[in-house]
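dude i think i finally got it to work??
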Amino acid sequence: MTKNVLAIVGSLRKGSVNRATARAAAALAGDDVSVTILPIADVPLYNGDVEDRGLPESVVALHEAVAAADGVIFFTPEYNGSLPAVAKNVIDWLSRPPNALENTPTAAVATTPGGRAGAGVLGHFEQILDHMLGDYIRFESHGIGKYFDKLDEDGELADEDARAELGAWLARFVASLDS
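look at this
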């Protein structure tokens, strides 16, 4: 049976390195895995007044996509040692009813220019999930540092070692979906 993994990219930039990492993960996924990158540009900033009037269509679609997934991976840059606003905003919406992220295996991958491979953002991501109400299934995070040396001329993740490590991490994530 095919495992459906939803990829949420925490950057809206067309040339996002983390979007390229999500594409690499999709290409490295086995035949029994489907990795779908969910567009989030239309998800509005979380606002309780908006929520009280009814969930925006883009937020309903976000919850539906997460509910239909076997697992969710946030591919996120590190901004000032933490999550970018768009990634945190998606988490904020997903923490609200209908709370589609609950009981869904969730992980983060950070591709960053620094040598710490996103340690700040990955640590904050894990703290946020640990503090959210409900039953969240957090899987180990994965970081790729010094990405300038790992991209080809088209901005795609081409470094064989980085791709092998990402592929092995993704295989462990997918295997955890069966447990």
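The chain has a mean pLDDT of 94.
im so relieved honestly
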